[in-house]
Hints:
- By secondary structure, this protein is of the alpha/beta class.
- It has two domains: 275 residues, TIM Barrel, CATH 3.20.20.70; 70 residues, Non-ribosomal Peptide Synthetase Peptidyl Carrier Protein, Chain A (Orthogonal Bundle), CATH 1.10.1200.
- Helix content is 39%, strand content 13%.
- It contains 16 helices and twelve strands.
- The strands form three sheets. An eight-stranded parallel beta barrel has the order 3-4-5-6-7-10-11-12, surrounded by five helices. It has a two-stranded antiparallel sheet with strand order 1-2.
- Strand 10, helix 8 and strand 11 form a beta-alpha-beta unit.
- Helix 6 runs parallel beside helix 7.
- The longest helix has 19 residues.
Amino acid sequence: MVGVTDHIEQPRPAVGPLRIGPFVVDPPVVLAPMAGVTNLAFRQLCRRFGDGLFVSEMVNARGLMEDGEKTWQLASFGPEEPRRSLQLYGTDPVVMGAAVRRLVERDHVDHIDLNFGCPAPKVTRHGGGAAVPARPALFGAVVTAAVDNAGAVPVTVKMRIGLDEDRVTFLEAGRRAADAGAAAVALHARTARQRYSGRARWSAIAELVEALPGTPVLGNGDIWTASDALAMIERTGCAGVVVGRACLGRPWFFGQLADLFAGRPIRPEPPLGEMAVIATEHARLLTEAIGERRGMQMMRKHMGWYLTGYPVGSTVRRSVTALSTLADLEALFAPLDPELRIDPAAAAAPRGTQAGPHEVVVPDGWLDADAIEPPDARADALVSGG
Length: 386
């Protein structure tokens, strides 16, 4: 078992487990779906450090119905995964309902999460992603189609505050999701205009908690440390947290969160030698899943995240772009001091993309709240996932 051994003190929080349909998620932590990151290998690694709900990469509902090979690969699970949690993207109620029905009939999933938070301009300008909640009737129809076809499988929803500060949608969308039978609603407390820039507005999470007294609300945004997760719950009253960029190159973050919610001293960031063991295991799991060439190509970006904050020098950082084999990775670590420690401030700094802000464009007439017509198929085709 890969682990981090040292600990620092932390007071015990008074936070209960998260309930999503028939599932008890303890600690109340969800891994946010991230394209090219939350594949089977990464989920396996994160789960070794702490429990939670570990969600797949985003999968395109239309791609499932068209039997896209890449789509079904993204939707695959390992036999050891206790809860097969899949995030589904779609903008057409008919397609969404059919995709959910196919997944359930094949006994392929235990939980479905619907993505209405994608802020990519190429998607919103066609009415997809974060633009869907701006057409509330359509949003409600897509969620209803998923819930009605899911049977006993719980369906959750993830969304943003709105398109921008002038076009806020989260309260109306949250109510419609709850009315449709969503088991929980997650809010990334940024607008589509912000993308991943600026500060997340945690007060919006608190507003949603107040607006949905019978539905668990999950908070997402600016959780970089275990203490941030506890602070979000205490300030907003949310039932759990969704963790994304903070775990890039830090799968042990789920161990820190598990320590926090169990009232144990929180383990610190590992020394470089221990990180090297974890990163090498990550690479091994990837190569077993998709082959050494593809796995090591994917591992290059992960190594940039793993090395963040360690004083290894620019030459080592540049060398990760040439990784092609597991032997290359072992050779990269071999001359480095295994006792090197990460600066705690660097561990708590934002990771991953911080792109934004940008203007949000939607189709002409899109803000007709009563319209139920879905966007054209391009809104689905432009989203990664097959």
